[in-house]
Write a structure and sequence with these properties.
- Helices cover 54% and strands 19% of the residues.
- The chain has 467 residues and is of the alpha+beta class.
- It folds into 3 domains: 157 residues, PAS domain (Beta-Lactamase); 81 residues, Helix Hairpins (Orthogonal Bundle), CATH 1.10.287.130; 150 residues, Heat Shock Protein 90 (2-Layer Sandwich).
- The strands form 3 sheets. Strands 2-1-5-4-3 form a 5-stranded antiparallel β-sheet. A 5-stranded mixed β-sheet has the order 7-9-10-12-11, covered by helices on one side.
- The radius of gyration is 53 Å and the shape is rod-shaped.
- The structure holds adenosine-5'-triphosphate and magnesium ion (MG).
- The site of adenosine-5'-triphosphate (ATP) has 22 residues, from helix 8 and helix 11.
- Magnesium ion (MG) binds next to helix 8.
Length: 467
């Protein structure tokens, strides 16, 4: 569960939400606080301004202190109500009270004395009722001397507003959080639906249903490449599965022929007593069939090892010309029996290769050149180098291969019909050759004209030579 994308996405989204929401709420709260306090500040500073300008006007007509008493006495509204929360007072330069608003003197209360420097100052102090008040104090110069004007507004309403705001936020927080978590859960579930669909489809595909494909059309853009890769993988799996099945059935088929031969000879020979010569002939026929089986089993082993890659190529320096000469020496006896001449021309070429594998390649090619040749024909082998490759051509004057069959002869168990009838080979030689050549990073090409002969050309990279 902790490892699921859904879980991680939900947790991360909620953490992000919590951080952003908390930050936003804090910003809003402090903004509201500063606006509310600013509102109070502008009220008390304008009150102080108004009182001081009234005093300045009245001073021109007579005694300032008397005028101040009159201004105070004329206060109306909340300033005239006892402990209403709106207050002002005037002090002399030493902080001695001159006069104050009825809201104070009716309760025999005063505001805390603050003697400001040159500028007016704002403070939060304890008011006459014990609650907090915002207090503005500013000194003014008159002809009669310096006087300090103070005005204060209760902060009870402001603090009540802020605390309601806090309460609303605290109540809204879990609700919004739950709504957000639910929303995120729904969105993620909906977003991951294509993945669930994909995984359901994948789980339905079994060994027997390798031909099935995931419908990429219904997948969303993010999952489609994954589904397409999966389909490609399925296709290649299906292909290799089919190849394996075909290989197994072909191999069994090929083994059945020599087995039937051996069985028939056993049955016929044993159904009555035979002469020594008859026994020898039967055993010799069975021996041929056993040899054929052994040859076939050897090839099957080579193919299976190449397939499972249990055979690592042992790359060693190889002199190609010398190897070809050795191969030809072995096949020459058979060739002579068929009156076929084998020639070798070219230069000495050194490459790094797997000796066993390369022997298999050249033996198969020269053997085919002899096997599918006419009596009195030729097999010409040339060894050269060019374009970074060792180039070996095996050219024969045999029956040739039709264009249609040229690509198929490299398939496992494929034999051209005429040679199938003669039952001269298993059809594995060229498949082994092409696999080994490819494993060396090389390639094999075939040119052939039916009735005239075939040329197989092997290219093997030189680059590792000598290293
Ligand atoms: N030089 C050639 N000329 C004409 N046909 C060829 C030649 N080489 C191969 N072929 C055809 O291609 C088929 C496949 O050859 P490949 O070497 O794979 O198998 P094979 O010779 O039948 O059996 P194996 O080599 O396993 O004993 C052969 O059966 C033959 O019909
Ligand atoms: Mg062959």
């Amino acid at each position: 569960m902790f490892n699921s994308i859904k879980f991680k996405l939900i947790i991360w989204t909620l953490v992000l939400f919590a951080v952003v929401f908390t930050g936003l709420e804090l910003i809003l709260y402090y903004k509201l606080e500063s606006v509310a306090i600013g509102f109070v500040d502008s009220h008390i500073s304008s009150e102080v301004g108004m009182l001081s300008s009234l005093a300045a006007t009245e001073e021109k007509h007579g005694q300032l202190v008397t005028e101040l008493y009159e201004i105070t006495g004329a206060a109306s509204g909340e300033y005239a109500e006892k402990l209403s929360g709106r207050y002002f007072q005037v002090l002399d330069h030493e902080g001695k009270l001159i006069t104050n608003s009825p809201s104070l003197y009716l309760a025999d209360a005063t505001l805390p004395v603050i003697i400001p420097a040159s500028e007016g100052v704002y403070d939060v102090v304890e008011g006459p009722t014990g609650g907090p008040i915002r207090l503005y104090s500013k000194a003014f110069e008159f002809e009669a001397g310096t006087y300090i004007f103070q005005a204060g507004d209760s902060l009870d309403d402001t603090y009540m507003l802020l605390s309601s705001f806090r309460r609303i936020i605290l109540m809204a927080y879990p609700l919004v959080f739950i709504a957000c978590a639910f929303g995120v859960f729904i969105v993620i579930r909906w977003s991951l639906a294509p993945l669930r669909l994909f995984s359901k489809k994948v789980s339905e595909i079994t060994e027997e249903k390798l031909g099935e494909r995931v419908d990429t059309g219904i997948m969303c853009a993010e999952v489609r490449p994954l589904a397409e890769s999966f389909n490609t993988m399925l296709k290649s799996l299906e292909h290799s599965f089919e190849k394996q099945k075909q290989f197994l059935s072909d191999a069994s088929h090929e083994l059945r022929t020599p087995t039937s031969i051996i069985k028939s000879y056993c049955d016929i020979t044993l159904n009555k007593s035979r002469t020594e010569d008859e026994y020898k002939a039967a055993i010799s026929k069975m021996g041929d069939a056993v040899n054929r089986m052994a040859e076939l089993i050897n090839r099957l082993l080579v193919i299976s090892r190449l397939d499972t890659k249990t055979v690592q190529l042992e790359m060693k320096p190889v002199e190609v010309m010398g190897m070809i000469k050795g191969v030809v020496r072995l096949i020459d006896v058979t060739a002579k029996n068929k009156d076929i001449d084998i020639t070798i021309t070219g230069e000495s070429v050194n490459i790094r290769a797997d000796k066993e594998g390369l022997l298999e390649v050249f033996t198969n090619l020269v053997e085919n050149g002899v096997k599918y040749n006419r009596s009195g024909g030729r097999v010409d082998v040339t060894v050269a180098s060019g374009n970074g490759n060792a180039i070996v051509t095996v050219k024969d004057t045999g029956m040739g291969i039709t264009a249609a069959e040229q690509t198929k002869v490299f398939d496992r168990f494929y034999r051209v019909d005429s040679s199938r009838e003669q039952s001269v080979g298993s059809g594995l030689g060229l498949a082994i050759v092409s696999t080994i050549v490819a494993a060396h990073g090389g390639r094999i090409e075939l040119e052939s004209i039916e009735g005239q002969g075939s040329t197989f050309t092997v290219y093997l990279p030189l680059e590792d030579a000598g290293s």
